[in-house]
Records
---
Amino acid sequence: MRNLPIWAVAVLMFTVTGGLWFLFGLLITPDQPPIVRLVGTIFYAGVMTVFFTIWIARARKRAGGANELDRIGKAVKSGSVPADADVDMWTATINTQHDQLRRQLWLGPVVFGSAIALSTWLAVTDGWLWWGGVVFFGAVLIWSVVSTPRGLRQVAHVRDELASRPASISRS
């Protein structure tokens, strides 16, 4: 998905978010009229698609394109920066990722802990299906607590390697 054109990403996101919203709606509120469910699904999928398409397009643009953003991701995972990396562009992208991961250290547990509390309350008051939300958000909370520090270390390593290189020469 990282190298797909932005229009293809938007179509894929609309289809996936709309499909999931529709299916979860069938499980949670089976007595809802189909037209109401369809309108809600289209609205939700449309809003999420617009939001995430803009977010992805901005991230791609800041990184120098989809291919460059993919190279940055591979460098973070491998821990080595290619010799031909644009130091200024990569540093800006890596600094953004570092800031996001630092926020995620405390925000992830707050958000997913709150989601667990809400899902538990809904499971007790509304129905057993919400226990699936408790399990899901519990798993995501554990994943967040484990993977965020690791990702922060990986990004910090790439950040240090970029800092040790001379700045890129501007191409005019």
---
Amino acid sequence: MRRWMGPGLALLATSCSPPGYDISVSMQGGALRFDARPNGIWPFRAPDNDITVHSVDIRSDKGVIWHIESNGDSNCLAGAPKAFPLFYGKVPACFIESAKAPALQPGARYEIQVMGAGWGDAYFRFGDPPVLLDLATARNATLELAASDDIASMPPPDPDTMEPRRH
């Protein structure tokens, strides 16, 4: 009995806080697509993209450039509004847009922030294909590329310092 007490308490403790989401980004039919995968242990994890969402922000270095949020309609709330898969600039059913989606600049760094019954965020560099960035790389201002730079030619950062390597 005591042998199972530790793992049982660990499962109960983790179930008290809302789960985070792993956000992925891809291109589909020329459109930027976001998917969300809830964190958790199978069989307790919700299915991919089955996430109740309150708001989504896309940010550039200048701030929020696209914002959608649940419209609060009781018919939508009863079904727990789902935004994923989410396509940039397309407002899902049961959501409203308070900032229109401008064109994204190739090579520019962006962040997606998701709030709902949990949270999630990811940094990415826009392109075809878009590139997910790890947190250290995304926050390192010295890695900013001009829109004309070729992402594929950029060397990986030094693993010890996370500073960019010079060509």
---
Amino acid sequence: MSHLALYERHFVHDKLSTTTQTVSEARLMDSVPEQDEMQLDRIHYVLSMLQTILSKADPYLVPSSNLDTA
């Protein structure tokens, strides 16, 4: 399998998406204290930035070993 295919099919993309969705759902819960809500907002922001960076990165410049440690 080519590096491009490995990059596009790497589990980190699904993991980021799933984790972002979970954090989004947790942010909407009524029982979340304000302090925790602020932390969840920050986590959501960081995960969203990671998704954006990975979607715009040149797959040939990102070693698969870096994705494996994410």
